[in-house]
Amino acid sequence: MELLVGKWTKVALQFPDHMLVDAPRVAEILDRDLEARHEDKKPVKITILADTSYSACCVDEVAAEHADAQVAVHYGRTCLSPTSRLPVIYVYTTHKLDHDAVLQSFRKEFSDLTSKVVVMADLTYQSHVAPVVRLLEESGYSGSIATEATRDPAGVLPNRRIVGKELDADQLKEYALFHIADPPQSLLLALSSRFTSLHILSIPSPSNLTIDNPTIQTAGLLRRRFAKVLSLASAGVIGILVNTLSVSNFLPSIDLLRAKIDKAGKKSYTIVVGKLNPAKLANFAEIEGWVVVGCWESGLIEDDASYWRPVVTPFEMEVALMNVEDRVWGDEWWGGIEKLKVEEKKPETNGDTSAQNGTGHDAQASDEIDEDESMPPEYDLRTGRLISHSRPMRLAIRSAAASSGDTQTGEAKTSGTLISRAAGEIASINGVASPGAEFLRSQRTWQGLGTDFDQEASTLIEEGRSGIARGYRVGDEDQDKH
């Protein structure tokens, strides 16, 4: 119906891998129905998008634009992240579920009929939530509350709204969660900080249900995430991994992360590598930690034990950039870019007044140097080692200001005078400090082909053989190949 109202003539269909077998049949039915019901009788071009096995929860706007689509139809479970360019129609699909089996599992977990429980479900089981809650109320449970799907990844409950009641974050902590179907790990971590306990109903088959209480295990996962934050706090070079090109505000989020990392005195590099794996990221040996810019589901790398460097979410990155005194992890946790906080800019003072009062660029650099000198030493809280390179860009400011002071106060040096590199000074490219170039200069043992020309003596060019394989000729002499 939405396709008819929109009057689109170019439609892209996106299926997860396990539903691709149904894609031709769905496209055939849509093509026939749309052509028959279209008012202008215009032919409708339907395209099936492929290669969406990675981040299938997001709409592949790039592939849809390659097909010149006017609208995308997304099938299956989704993160419901807002798109940046194309309108999207979501088809959640529905799986079968035995409601009586759900009631039996619920009774095993909650024997008290007055228990405060919020009932949620995966999007593919969302249509069963309201009937299950009605069945619970008929069975005497007075504290069960239903939820419905909504497009709000930054809500208290991501993409869900509580039906019939207005509960804030503090009131929600008095409730337990009963979730139908296994949620992704990012959602599990987010929900663990919002409810008093978690009760997950796994569904191997519609009538064969198993229930689990992962509250303790999830608390352990959160502690592990906090350990990664501590390891990233001592990193001097941070890589920003672009994990999506479809979420509406991914570009402003990248700029915001760059600004926050730069303000902390660290260096950032933005990298797009497609599907993430340990081998790809291990090629960037200069990077000491990664932050993923993606939706709230794909922003968390679940199986990250084999990654050489820590990979965190933007929310965790903000915590890592805090000062030690301010670094307090509350009860909340977020997996995507939906909770990046924009810092308020202070009003700029008049440039002439700054110059008169001595608060110009030189004074600002001097203040930053004094502040850096007075800061206490930084240690890796996991290993106890002293970290001297956690803020390399502040070292660059210090060395630049020192060299500027020498130029202004000292006598002019001739071009032939040798100048030694100051301790802690890093390499620069076109006058801009670059920790990556410093790593290439000082730590990389192999820097590519053609970099050893100054280590081996060159040889004279000699005349080689010519002719065919049956008989080669060297110079003026004929020689047969033996």
TrEMBL record:
Any one GO cellular component localisation term in the record: cytoplasm
Comp. bias (Polar residues): 350-359
Annotated GO biological process: protein histidyl modification to diphthamide
Compositionally biased tracts (Basic and acidic residues): 473-482
Compositionally biased tracts (Acidic residues): 365-375
Pathway: Protein modification; peptidyl-diphthamide biosynthesis
Main function: Required for the first step of diphthamide biosynthesis, a post-translational modification of histidine which occurs in elongation factor 2. DPH1 and DPH2 transfer a 3-amino-3-carboxypropyl (ACP) group from S-adenosyl-L-methionine (SAM) to a histidine residue, the reaction is assisted by a reduction system comprising DPH3 and a NADH-dependent reductase. Facilitates the reduction of the catalytic iron-sulfur cluster found in the DPH1 subunit. Required for the first step of diphthamide biosynthesis, a post-translational modification of histidine which occurs in elongation factor 2. DPH1 and DPH2 transfer a 3-amino-3-carboxypropyl (ACP) group from S-adenosyl-L-methionine (SAM) to a histidine residue, the reaction is assisted by a reduction system comprising DPH3 and a NADH-dependent reductase, predominantly CBR1. Facilitates the reduction of the catalytic iron-sulfur cluster found in the DPH1 subunit.
Protein name: 2-(3-amino-3-carboxypropyl)histidine synthase subunit 2
Species this protein is from: Beauveria bassiana
